[in-house]
Every structure is written in C-alpha cells, then in structure tokens.
C-alpha cells in the first residue's frame, strides 16, 4: 500500500471529521444552547411575543438543522469530487 | 352528502391509490425487496423517509403534547435534530458500505455472527414496540372518522399493508410512502392554515405563531401567556427551572432517532453516498414542514379552545353549558371532552385546580369548585376542522391523513423486522446456501409473519406497547447507534467490544426503565416509585437511553482495547467506507 495514497486519504478524512465537528457544534449550540441552557441569558431579545430562546426551541433550531444537513452534503460532495471519489 | 360518506370516499380513495402502487411496484429480486433496487431518487427517498418517520402518534398526539408549553419542545427538537446525527455520522457511510439491513452492517463490520444476532434481537425489540403503537393508531384513526370499531379498522389497515408490503417489499413501501406523505402533510397543514388565517391573518402557521393575535392586537404568544396565567396555568412560554432532564431527554430522542433501523434502511435505497447525504437533507425538509407546523397548531389551538370556553375573556363568566357549540357536543360523545358541573352554575369553568394558590384565591372568589372540563389533548388536532368551521372535505382529508401516517410508519417497521429475519437470521446465520429466489420467498413469508404478529399484538396490546418512547428510543440510542458509529469511526473496535457494548447498553437502559416502570412493565413490580426524588442523579427513565449509549461506548472501547486488534481485512473494510481511494481488499473478502 503506497504511503502517498494514505496521506491523501488521511487529509480527506481529517477534513470530513472537522466538518462533522463544526456541524455538530452548531447543532448543539442552537438546540441545547440557545433553545435550552442559554435561554435565561437571552431573555432580553424578543421575537414575536416571546424570547429568542423560545423561538429557537420551537422553530429556529429545526431551520438550522435543515441548513446544516444541506451544508454538510454540499461540502462533502464537493470534497468527494476534488478527491475524485467514485462509487 | 354526509360527513361519513365524504370520509369514506377519502379513505377508500387513498387505499385504492396504495393498492395500485403495490401492483405497479412489485419486487422481482431480493435487491428490490430489501432496498428497492438501490436506485430511488434522493428527493423521493426524503419524502418516503418523512412518511416513515411521521407516525400515527405524531399526527394525532404531538400537537397536544406541545400545547402544554415550552418544556415539551424536547419532542420537536429531538425528533428533528436526530437527522443531523444521521446525516453526518451514519447514513452516508452505511450507504457506501452497501448492505441490505442494519444487522448486516454489524455482522460484516465486526465479522461476527453473534454480533449480528445481538443486533437482530435489539432491532426486533425496538421495531416491534414501535409497530404496535402504529397498528393501534391506525385502528384509532378509523374509529374516530369512520364509525367502525378500532379492531375492524386495524384489520382493514393490516390487509392494505399486506398488499403492498408483501408484493413490493421495500419497492412497494417506498412508493406508497411517497403517496402517504403527500396525503398526511396536506391533511395536517390544511387545517393549520385555516386556523392561522382565522387567528392571526398569516397564511403560514409558522409565522402566525410569532405574529399578532387578530382579535386582541397583542402578539399571539403574549396573549396566550396572559390567558393561561389568568386561569392558573403556567405561562405558555415559561422557562423550566430544571434543564437537566430536558437536556437528557432531548438528547435521548435525537440519538435514538439516528439509531432507529426503519429510518436507517431508507438510506440504503439511494444510488450512492452523495445521494445519501442529499437525501438526509430532503428528509429533514419534509419532516421540518410538519414539525414547524406542530408548535403553531399547538399554541393556536390551545388559545382557541380557551377562547371558546371564555368567549368574553377570562375575567368574565365562562361559557354556559347550554350554549356550547356543536363540535363540543360531538366530542363529548367520544369521551375526549368531559364536563362535570361541580359548582352547579351550569357554566364550564376550565382552569388549573392543581395550582393551590390560584384555587384558594381567584377560583374561590369567583365561586369555582374545581376544574369542570377534562380535555384529552388529542382533541386539539382531531376537533380542529369543526372548531374552525372548515369545509367537510377537510375532515375527510384528515381521516385519510391519520390513516396514512399510521400505515406508512407501520410498513417501514414491518420491513425492517422482516428483512432482519429473512436476510440476517435465515440467509446469513441459519441457511447460508439460500438462493436468491428462495431468500425472496422467505422474505415475503417473514413479512406475512411480521404483519400477523403485529396485528395480533395491536388487537391485544401488551403493557410495553405504551412505552414506545422509553423502550424504542432508549434501546436504539443505547444499542445500535453506538455500535454503528464506532464501527465507522474507530477501527480498533472488535467484535467482542461491540457485543459487550450492545449488551451493556441494553441492560443499563432496560434495567433502569424496569426499575421505575415495573419489570416487563408489569404494574407493581417496580423497585422504586417513578418520581424525581427516587431517580439516580435525577435521570428520568424516559431519558436514560443516552446514558445507555455512554455505557455502550465505554464498554465497547475498554473491551476492545483489552482484546485483539481487528484483522487487516477488517481495517481495510473500514478504510473503504471512509476514504475516497478504494482499499485493496473489498468487502467481498470479509463476508459474514
């Protein structure tokens, strides 16, 4: 097994893992952070008759999840193309 | 035309559509039966996944749960956030690995029949618990809308599932799920749009919830807070003081969602890894359409119900029983609404009598002798079309939607069960020489068996049937999720670690649940009362799944480190799943 290929593979995987860590950080921040644990700190910011933490818990987190999944898919699909990954 | 006739037309119409699809989408090979030939378009699969996911309970009961207030936001975040885990940690790699079932991945990655069999057992516990609720849910939907007993409704539903699942396998299930999604989302959003227009003037319920209440000119949520406060309830948007359980519960729902086999196998049906990633996004779009409508519907329905009971405001006398609207009378007959005139004034006082201060203060001053209205929360969805004076066809559509939600989830679960039996237990464990044609026959027979068992259990629901959330999500979080993710992300995990991890996760989760809810859910056999002061570290039995997952991760890692390193063939297999360059040894070299 050529080491050269290994390095290339490792670079690809590191990129993937970094991207996952980023996505899951945002995932945790909007739901467990803004929507739950940090909510008391954000009480001052109001959104349509409630506070922003309530909005995140009931709507904002879901919208962020959708954006995250598409963001991850697009980034990885582009990365696959760059690395010439074929099925 | 009578309402009954309209409902009947909608339900029969949708059933004809599903059966038509069944005949068109017959499976001709095991590949078609298990993974719909592996060429489902990612958007189509996203839609089918959403139908697979949105169950009878989501359709009928979740809005009622959410209407309790902020604390139940766990359900909305949990049942959507799991898809981020699925999209980044599981679905793409499993698709690339290219198996037919979830235990198939476990068996091949860990090169172990025992690991495969343990995974099959976990899968069956999870899916069987889940499917009973769907069967009874289909029966309930029938009974509510079609004047037949719920048992008859359940049997009719089972026959329809039989037609498309036995004939078409995953192929039939996929395309009927697409049709079922369209029916259920129209049925759920149409009344919500009506209600939102009526109460806020917003067409989109999602913006209506954060909009202005047309009648009072106040923001809707502020108005709702005031109304519930006036009646002694907690503010709708009030924060909760103890976030620990809310956190654990939400995390258990998310991790459990990502580990549910009937959802994971949907991602085996798309052409390649790129489509698996996209498909997860589409699935979440279709699910989000539903789960952002839910809180809007919940808040607005609750306010609307309270306004019906207090037509001139909460400080004025409540509605006189004799002046109650027709829908109120209709739903009293079902027992979902009950009125008991405790103070004998002929009016319907609806308030929180569990709030001692309020009962001693305002309620006593106004001569109220206790809450007089018992409301089953399902009514917020079921009675909606009548409450908002919607046309008769909307009710017919809701009947078809409730049934569609139950059937689509039931068929996905039945497929997960039957393919695990025919592919993992028979083909890969007991009868390795099974030909493709014979395996197909066994796959169909397993499906027949699964439907018969699920129908029987639906007619005679055992105690654990009511514990879908605790048992199915807890087990999925504690067993399959850690074992699969470790299999992809940590090369060093071997079969001994995986098996020990699954068993430890399952025992921790199920044992903890049984300690508080009774062993095998037999009433009276619990060791401790199910109240917060008896919970270990304040962990509710419903939230224990994520603790089981941590136990699984830890045990799997420790046992693997103490035993042998997986073979080069296995490590190459993991490489192949992760890296763009094909590894020299393909999965073919390491079967079983």
From TrEMBL, chain A:
Keywords: Membrane, Transmembrane, Transmembrane helix
Top-level taxon: Bacteria
Secretion signal span: none
Xref: Pfam families: DUF4212
Transmembrane regions listed in the UniProt entry: 20-42, 54-73
InterPro entries named in the record: Na_symporter_ssu
Domain Sodium symporter small subunit residue range list: 10-85
Protein name (record): DUF4212 domain-containing protein
Source organism of the structure: Azoarcus taiwanensis
UniProtKB/TrEMBL annotation, chain B:
A molecular function (GO) term: symporter activity
UniProtKB keywords: Cell membrane, Ion transport, Membrane, Sodium, Sodium transport, Symport, Transmembrane, Transmembrane helix, Transport
Membrane topology of this protein: Multi-pass membrane protein
Keyword Metal-binding: no
Chief place where the protein resides: membrane
Residue spans crossing the bilayer: 6-25, 46-70, 76-94, 115-132, 152-169, 181-204, 246-268, 280-298, 392-421, 441-459, 465-490, 502-522, 534-559
One GO biological process term: sodium ion transport
One GO CC term, this protein: plasma membrane
Compartment(s): Membrane
Record flagged with keyword Transport: yes
NCBIfam families with a match to the protein in the record: Na_symport_lg
Family per record: Belongs to the sodium:solute symporter (SSF) (TC 2.A.21) family.
PANTHER family membership: NA(+):SOLUTE SYMPORTER (SSF FAMILY), SODIUM/PROLINE SYMPORTER-RELATED
Name of protein: Cation acetate symporter
């Amino acid at each position: 097994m050529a080491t050269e290929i290994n390095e290339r593979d490792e670079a690809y995987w590191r990129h993937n893992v970094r991207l996952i860590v980023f996505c899951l950080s945002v995932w945790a921040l909007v739901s467990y952070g803004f929507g739950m644990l940090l909510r008391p700190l954000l009480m001052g910011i109001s959104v349509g008759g409630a506070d922003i933490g309530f909005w995140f818990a009931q709507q904002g987190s879901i919208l962020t999840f959708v954006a995250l999944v598409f963001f991850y898919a697009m980034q990885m699909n582009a990365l696959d193309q760059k690395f010439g990954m074929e099925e | 035309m009578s309402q009954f006739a309209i409902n009947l037309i909608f339900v029969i119409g949708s059933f004809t559509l599903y059966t038509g699809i069944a005949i068109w989408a017959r499976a001709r090979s095991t590949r078609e039966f298990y993974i719909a030939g592996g060429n489902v378009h990612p958007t189509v699969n996203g839609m089918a996944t959403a139908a697979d996911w949105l169950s009878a309970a989501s359709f009928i009961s979740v809005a009622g749960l959410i209407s309790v207030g902020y604390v139940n936001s766990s359900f909305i975040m949990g049942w959507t956030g799991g898809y981020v885990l699925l999209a980044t940690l599981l679905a793409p790699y499993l698709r690339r690995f290219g198996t037919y079932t979830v235990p198939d991945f476990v068996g091949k990655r860990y090169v172990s029949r025992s690991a495969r069999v343990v995974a099959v057992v976990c899968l069956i516990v999870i899916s069987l618990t889940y499917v009973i609720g769907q069967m009874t849910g289909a029966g309930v939907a029938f009974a509510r809308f079609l004047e037949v007993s719920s048992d008859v409704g359940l049997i009719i539903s089972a026959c329809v599932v039989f037609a498309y699942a036995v004939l078409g396998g995953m192929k039939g299930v996929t395309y009927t799920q697409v049709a079922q999604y369209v029916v259920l989302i129209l049925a759920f959003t149409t009344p919500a749009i009506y209600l939102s227009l009526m109460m806020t003037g917003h067409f989109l319920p999602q913006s209506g919830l954060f909009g202005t209440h047309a009648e009072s000119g106040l923001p809707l949520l502020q108005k709702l807070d005031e109304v519930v406060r006036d009646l002694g309830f907690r503010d709708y948007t009030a924060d909760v003081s103890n976030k620990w359980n809310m956190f654990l519960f939400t995390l258990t729902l998310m991790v459990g969602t990502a580990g549910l086999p009937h959802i994971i196998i949907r991602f085996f049906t798309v052409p390649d890894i790129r489509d698996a990633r996209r498909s997860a996004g589409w699935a979440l779009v279709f699910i989000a359409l539903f789960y952002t409508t839910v809180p809007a519907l919940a808040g607005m329905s609750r306010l609307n119900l309270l306004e019906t009971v207090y037509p001139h405001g909460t400080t004025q006398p409540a509605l006189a029983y004799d002046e109650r609207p027709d829908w109120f009378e209709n739903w009293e007959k079902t027992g979902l609404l009950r009125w008991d005139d405790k103070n004998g004034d002929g009016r319907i006082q609806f308030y929180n009598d569990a709030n001692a201060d309020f009962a001693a203060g305002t309620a006593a001053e106004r001569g109220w002798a206790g809450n007089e209205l018992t409301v089953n929360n399902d009514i917020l969805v079921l009675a909606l079309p009548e409450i908002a004076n919607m046309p008769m066809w909307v009710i017919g559509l809701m009947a078809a939607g409730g049934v569609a939600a139950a059937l689509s989830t039931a068929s996905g679960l039945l497929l997960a069960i039957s393919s695990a039996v025919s592919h993992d237990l028979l083909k890969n464990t007991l009868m390795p020489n099974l030909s493709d044609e014979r395996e197909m026959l066994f796959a169909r027979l397993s499906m027949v068996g699964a439907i018969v068992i699920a129908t029987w259990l639906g007619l005679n629901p055992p105690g654990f049937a009511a514990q879908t959330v605790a048992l199915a999500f807890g087990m999925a979080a504690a067993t399959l999720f850690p074992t699969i993710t470790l299999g992809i992300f940590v090369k060093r995990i071997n079969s001994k670690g995986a098996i020990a991890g699954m068993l430890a996760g399952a025992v921790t989760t199920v044992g903890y649940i049984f300690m508080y809810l009774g062993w095998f859910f037999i009433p009276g056999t619990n060791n401790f009362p199910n109240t917060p002061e008896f919970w270990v570290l304040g962990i509710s039995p419903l939230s224990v799944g994520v603790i089981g997952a941590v136990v699984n991760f830890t045990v799997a890692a420790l046992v693997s480190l103490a035993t042998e390193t997986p073979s080069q063939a296995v490590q190459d297999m993991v490489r192949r799943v992760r890296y763009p360059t094909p590894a020299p040894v393909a999965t073919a070299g390491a079967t079983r």
